Amino acid sequence: MGQISNRVFADTTEDSSTSSGHRGHRRTFEIKSPAASAGSYDFVSARPPGKKTNILESVGHLVKSCLGGGVVAIHESYKACGLWTSMGLTIFIGFLISYCMYMIAKSAQRLYGRLHIATMSYPDVAEAAIAICPFPKIRKYSKCLRYAVDFTICVDLFGSCCVYQVVICRTIKQLVEGTDTVTLEGNPPLRMYILMLLVPCILICMITTLKYLAPFSILADIFLLILAIATIYYGCTFSKVSMFEMPAFKNMPGLFEFLGVCVFSMEGVGATMAIENNMKEPQKIGRVLALGMSVVVGIVFVIGTFGYWGFGEDSKSPVTLNFPFTAFSIALKVFMAVIIYVTFALNFWVPFDLVWYYIKKRYPPTKYWFWERVYRGSFVIVITLIAFIFPNVSSFIGLLGSFCLSNMGFIYPAFIDLCLDWEYPGLGFMKWRLLKCIFICIFGTILGVFGTYTNFRELIRQSF
């Protein structure tokens, strides 16, 4: 370890002048403690003072981060896969996602002790783990993994914005037409609603600070709880057969559609480090993940199960489209459109802020105000065009979950954890840590390859 401790690795992370919490301070990755004694570094005391979150507050942030637009389409993926298989896999995938999030947080805390750095983002953890790993031929690719994480985050969140546009437009179209069936056709057709939403989306994305948008995330949480309760009520009211008579499993394409949507609906690995960095007791991140992910899995399970059981093979996305035209359900539909409209801006802010860091280097600081708004508008136009071409919610969500989150949620955390385990504490009895990494990577690869292919094929079929 004597030679290793003298290695220094440059970090390309930004300085504190940048506005995004996704990036950190400019620093170098220098090993200052061997792995065996890394636990002696008190990273909590080394963190800057400020308001920190307790366990309950951290659980709330985690739930907000994990539950997104995918949950309103989970029932349709249950329909594609089969009820009982989906119910079992929801619990299994929820556990696996939670464990991978835990691996990222614990990997970061091990890196704090080795590098004497108090806070890190997910891209920081990815780069640092590879930069100090015991495999010399791999170290030179540390920046590549960082950029891969950045790219995946951007594709995932910009793609989510496309989904949100379609969800809003499907809801508006149903309210305008007053019908239970929402199709691509009509007068005007669904794609025309998507184009009409362009200007409102550009306007809300011109908001450059989160403080004006963040309060709406609390309303979104409340809405999701109400939505879950309403789904149970309407599901029990409209169900025509016993739950035991529902199909247990349908086919493999349906399975991969379900896996993609399910992962998308629950994955919050991108927010794990932001939550850990702001905790009063970050060593208790495991409790936060256990409690928070139990709530997330519970809501996804409830909406998926009762949404499919209640509305059967005629169920549509978002789940509110299946609700009857009563005063309460109409209010839910309207409120969902408004909440998801604001969520669109919240989701847009994070990846754009990341991309803007690289773009703005091309312009003098005096031109930032103008060019930032030009690029914001341009990105929204591209997002709208993609939503216009592929206006199918479930398959689009499944594609994002399969392509993006198979990497960011499973493969990257397992590989990072293995790199840190290799020398200390080692691979364990019968090399179980290596086998664990291989299992998670195989699962992520299967989901990434077959899930992406299946969902993309279905997206093309339903869009044209």
TrEMBL record:
Top-rank taxon = Eukaryota
As for subcellular location, the record says: Membrane
Q: Where is this region: Disordered?
A: 1-28
GO CC term (a single one): vacuolar membrane
What topology does the record note for this protein and the membrane?
Multi-pass membrane protein
Say if the entry is tagged with keyword Cell membrane. Answer: no
Principal localization reads membrane
Q: Where is the Amino acid transporter transmembrane domain?
A: 52-453
Q: What keywords would UniProt list here? A: Membrane, Transmembrane, Transmembrane helix
For molecular function, the Gene Ontology terms on record are: L-amino acid transmembrane transporter activity
Q: Which residues cross the membrane?
A: 83-105, 190-209, 216-235, 255-276, 288-310, 330-352, 373-390, 437-456
The molecule here is called Proton-coupled amino acid transporter 3 isoform X1
